[in-house]
Sequence to fold (65 residues):
Amino acid sequence: MDLDLAGRCALISGASRGIGRAIALGLARQGCRIAAIARGSEGLAALAPELDAAGGGPHATIAAD
Fold:
């Protein structure tokens, strides 16, 4: 399904795991640039290459509480 999201930005909190991760990857596949925020920098480090592979970029990961 094409949601016409190419070039749009999405801010996803809780993006390092679970539904937040799935949403971030799904939106990246639709062409969104993602700002992924989570408390765990390890999870974000694992997510970053997956976002790049999914497309859309450039993406940002931010560790914050």
Observations:
- The longest strand covers residues 33-38.
- The CA atoms of residues 14 and 39 lie 8 Å apart.
